[in-house]
Design brief:
Elements: H1 3-12, H2 14-38, H3 41-46, E1 71-72, E2 78-83, E3 89-95, E4 99-106, E5 112-119, E6 126-130, E7 137-144, E8 148-159, E9 167-177, E10 196-197, E11 204-211, E12 217-223, E13 227-235, E14 241-247, E15 253-257, E16 263-268, E17 274-284, E18 292-302, E19 321-322, E20 326-332, E21 336-342, E22 346-353, E23 359-366, E24 372-376, E25 383-388, E26 393-404, E27 409-419, H4 456-472
Helix pairs in contact: 1-2
Length: 473
């Protein structure tokens, strides 16, 4: 793929890139090879000339139908050639290390669709391609680090003129040596084990950094639990595409940014304290200068992973927030403390509404000195308590998170004061003076079993009672 093809695939995702690549090759290369194998050129022309096979013109570079017979081209050379259906043209170019290759094709035949490929030293592996619907194709500033003989292939995909005579085309090749990539003062920070440590991550700004081909840059930071980090790098996309990846101490990918813009940025919230590493990588060369310059900016801040409600921060009794009477919608991922005002002689009524499946919350009431007065700690939905205020003044309420299955646990806390309920002074019923039944004249262990309860024991006992009455008669 050409650089543009690579960036389109990168932007739209690997799956789409692979699917596009397969479709293109099924549509162009595979079908063409199939036709070449099973049909002679004269017969194949019938498929594109309404039944009349016309001879396709040749050029001075023929035969150059494969990489073994490739015509040799040099830098700065422009040629005039002719392409036929199912008759690809191959050209060879000699490259030194760190070469930058640009290739363009043009044709004045509007009905022709010519495709352009840059191949590796094996003559088949495609390094870059340009597949528009015309014959005006280009591969721009493609960087090749290794010296060797590489190949150019042109292929006439279609000719809708119906004449079967192919198409003439012009092709130019430009080969330059990439300017050397300058290292920055932080080298050698080019691997997982060789990293530049940034001791104070927050507010770090480093300019004039340089990323080179096959030479990554690595930085590491020490982050606290819930210390969110935002890393931003700025560069010129036209000079080379740069990507960044954040990893943990086990080399697991935590976040990445790989757009085709002039900036990459990632934000990550660590759930535990530790060392985190940033990988900076040159994805592609886009000009004749090796590498690209970039700047690095790092910001961190401690954040509440649950999100905040109107009363945060209030994780300790010292940070307790004043709570008025009424209903309050809140969020918990740690202890929440509140202060309330109560009047002596009235009941302090608190209720906590939540779903236990999201996490277990408990409710506790303390006096002004932090002494616990009452609590509610079940394993069900919701908690509630009532306590008669023994003085007028300040009390503390704690909503404690016992366990959680989610990052955030929403709840509703209700507070009100009511009259203390008084116990009743009269008994609710009179004692019974007489027994409700007469004692049985004939004691029997089975006499109290009803005859309708016909269990085996009931039948047996009933027979014994009947026999006993018969003897007494």
């Amino acid at each position: 793929m050409s650089m543009n093809n690579l960036l389109i695939c990168k932007k739209r995702g690997l799956w789409l890139c692979t699917k596009l690549y397969v479709i293109l090759h099924q549509r162009r290369s595979t079908l063409r090879m199939y036709m070449q194998f099973f049909f002679t050129p004269a017969i194949m022309l019938l498929f594109h000339s309404n039944g009349y096979a016309q001879e396709c013109s040749t050029d001075s570079f023929e035969p150059n139908n494969n990489n073994q017979d490739a015509a040799i081209l040099t830098s700065g050379e422009s040629i005039s050639a002719h392409s036929c259906l199912y008759d690809d043209d191959y050209y060879a170019i000699e490259l030194e290390s760190n070469s930058v290759v640009s290739i363009q094709t043009t044709s004045i035949i509007a009905t022709a669709d010519l495709d352009l490929y840059l191949l590796s030293t094996d003559g088949s592996t495609e390094l870059a391609f340009s597949l528009s619907d015309t014959s005006n194709e280009s591969i721009e500033h493609f960087f090749i680090p290794d010296a060797g003989t590489y190949y150019i292939r042109t292929s006439l995909y279609s000719d809708t003129s119906g004449e079967g005579s192919g198409t003439p085309y012009e092709m130019s090749v430009d080969i330059t040596t990439a300017n050397a990539c300058l290292e920055d003062p932080y080298e050698d920070n080019d691997s997982w084990n060789n990293t530049t440590e940034i001791a104070q991550a927050n507010g770090t700004m480093i300019d004039n950094l340089s990323i080179c081909p096959e030479d990554e840059d690595w930085f590491q930071f020490q982050l606290m639990e819930h210390e969110q980090i935002t890393v931003t790098i700025d560069f010129e996309q036209d000079n080379g595409d740069v990507d960044i990846t954040l990893k943990d101490i086990n080399n697991n990918i935590l976040a990445s940014s790989d757009t085709t813009e002039n900036q990459e940025q990632i934000t990550y919230l660590p759930l535990e304290q530790g060392v985190y590493k940033l990988q900076v990588k040159l994805f592609s060369e886009n000009d004749a200068d090796l590498g690209n310059a970039y700047s690095l900016h790092v910001q961190t801040e401690i954040v509440n992973p649950c999100g905040e409600d109107d009363y945060d921060p209030n994780e300790t009794i010292e940070d307790a927030q004043s709570l008025s009477a009424g209903s309050h919608n809140l969020v918990s991922c740690d202890a929440d403390w509140f202060s309330i005002e109560a009047t002596e002689g009235l009941s302090i009524d608190l209720s906590l509404l939540f779903s236990h499946i999201d996490g277990d919350l408990d409710l506790n009431l303390y006096d002004k000195d932090g002494v616990e007065l009452s609590s509610s700690a079940t394993s069900n939905d919701n908690e509630s308590l009532s306590y008669p205020a023994s003085y007028t003044g300040l009390y503390y309420v704690e909503v404690s998170l016992v366990s959680t299955l989610q990052v955030a646990n929403p709840y509703t806390l209700n507070y009100e004061q009511n009259e203390v309920a008084q116990p009743s002074s009269e008994p609710t019923s009179e004692p019974t003076s007489e027994p409700s039944t007469e004692p049985s004249s004939e004691p029997s262990s089975c006499s109290n079993i009803p005859l309708w309860e016909l269990s085996l024991l009931g039948i047996f006992c009933s027979l014994m009672v009947a026999a006993s009455r018969k003897r007494s008669e």
